[in-house]
């Protein structure tokens, strides 16, 4: 599952330190922009996975246009937590109305993907 959050990259001498304003305590650094970006993706993934594992609320990302740092720049950072977490599938049995099943099948809906996306939205909303 993909998450995208604004990050502020602060230039400090020849390196960068990165903070996520929406995610208290989520910081990292790198000796170049490339290293800082890679480290920020890893930090974001670890932070999000920890919140999910602990059953805590995941903050809604703020609008990146609200940030204009004087000592660096802001950027969106994305992470796909599926590459970091246990992605073992768990089979679930569910019941839906026949008419809804027929309509979804005729549209080629991927039931597993829809359920995963809906569950993630539900989790993020709490």
Please tell me about this protein's structure.
This protein is an alpha+beta fold and 126 residues long. It folds into two domains: 1-86, 2-Layer Sandwich (Double Stranded RNA Binding Domain), CATH 3.30.160; 89-126, no CATH class. The chain has three helices and four strands, in the order E-E-E-H-E-H-H. The protein has a four-stranded antiparallel beta sheet with strand order 3-2-1-4, with helices on one face. Strand 2 and strand 3 form a beta hairpin. The chain starts with a strand and ends with a helix. The model has no long low-confidence stretch (mean pLDDT 89).
Distance between the termini: 17 Å
From the coordinates shown, what is the CATH architecture of the largest domain?
Answer: 2-Layer Sandwich
CATH class of the largest domain: Alpha Beta
Query: Residue share in helices?
Result: 25-40%
Q: Would you report the number of β strands?
A: 4
Q: What Rg, in angstroms, do the CA atoms define?
A: 18 Å
Main β-sheet description: 4 strands, antiparallel
Class by alpha and beta content: alpha+beta
Q: How many independent structural domains?
A: 2
Mean model confidence by pLDDT: 89
- The DSSP helix count reads 3
């Amino acid at each position: 599952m993909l998450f995208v959050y604004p990050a502020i990259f602060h230039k400090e001498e020849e390196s960068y330190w990165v903070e996520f304003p929406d995610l208290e305590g989520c910081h990292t650094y790198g000796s170049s922009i490339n290293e800082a970006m890679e480290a920020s993706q890893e930090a974001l993934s670890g932070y999000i996975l920890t919140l999910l594992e602990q059953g805590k609320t995941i903050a809604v990302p703020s609008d990146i246009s609200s940030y204009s740092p004087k000592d660096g720049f802001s950027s969106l950072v994305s992470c796909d937590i599926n590459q970091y977490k246990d992605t073992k599938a768990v089979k679930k049995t569910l019941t839906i109305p026949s008419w809804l099943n027929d309509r979804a099948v005729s549209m080629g809906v991927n039931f597993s993907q829809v359920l995963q996306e809906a569950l993630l939205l539900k989790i993020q909303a709490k």
